[in-house]
Design a protein that fits this description.
Elements: H1 12-18, H2 20-31, E1 37-38, H3 45-48, H4 52-60, E2 66-67, E3 69-76, E4 79-86, H5 99-116, H6 127-142, E5 147-151, E6 158-159, E7 162-163, H7 164-177, H8 181-196, E8 211-213, E9 224-230, E10 233-241, E11 247-256
Parallel strand pairs: 1-2, 4-5, 5-8
Antiparallel strand pairs: 3-4, 6-7, 9-10, 10-11
Helix pairs in contact: 7-8
Amino acid sequence: MGDSEELWENLFISVKKHNKATFEKEKLFLKRKAFIKIFGNHDLYWDNDPLAPVSLMQLYGQRLKTHEGVILQTLVNNKTLSIFLTHGHQGDLQSDGNWFSKWFVSDIWGPFQAYLRINPNTPANNDQLKTDHNRIMYQWSAKREKMVLITGHTHQPVFKSLTQLEKLYDELEKAKKANSTKLINDLQKQITKRHAKGDIVPDFTIYKPTYFNSGCCCFDDGDITGIEIENGSIRLIKWQYNSTGESERLVLEDSKLEDLKL
C-alpha cells in the first residue's frame, strides 16, 4: 500500500543493501505475475525520479511500473464490487499536490527533516491527524456506489470504517447489554491499553462499511497489521511474536464481502 521503502530518511543504496531478503521474496510474486507496486508519500522517488526505473531494475531484475493506486473488481451476488487500493496520502496537502510539491517533499523536505531529526506533524505520529484523515477517507468512500476503499498512510488499522478502538467500544456496549462481567472487564482492559498508546475515538456515529486501512508494519512492539482478501472474505490480520519469540498470524476481524451490503 505504498511507503514500502522509507526513502525520505534513507538513501536508495542503503535500502537496497539492508533489505535484500525482502526484495527476494517480492520477486517470487513478480515471477508469477502477482505483484503490483503502489507508491506512497515516503517513496515518491518511484514516481518522480528519472533514475527510478534503473533502481527498480536493480532490485527486481526486470522492468516494473509503479502505480498511484489500483482497482480490483470481483462479483458479489452477481454484481460488480470495486476495491480501490491506494496509499491514502492523496488529499493531504502536506503529502500530496502538484508536481512541485511532490518534488519538494520528496527531494528537499524529506532529506532535510531526516538530517535535522525533525519530528514532522504527520498522521503517522499525530493521533488527531490520524482521526481527521480517517474521517476524510471515510466520507469520500461513503459517497461511492459499490466500492470499498483500502488505504494505509495513518498507521492506524480500520475495518468496516471502524478503528480497533471503536470496535472495542462497540463490543463493550454489547457485553454490557448481555451482563457479561468477564467480557466487560477484558474489553475495558483492552480499551485502556489502546488509550495508553494514544488512540482516540473519532466521531463515526453513523457509518457505512466502505473504508478499510491496512494499519502499520512498524509498530513499536514489532507487530504488523494488514488486510487480506480471499475466497469472498476480507480480514484484518496481525502478525505478532508469541511467547517463544516466533511470529504468528492472528485474525482480528473477518467479514464476507457480501455482508458489507454496499
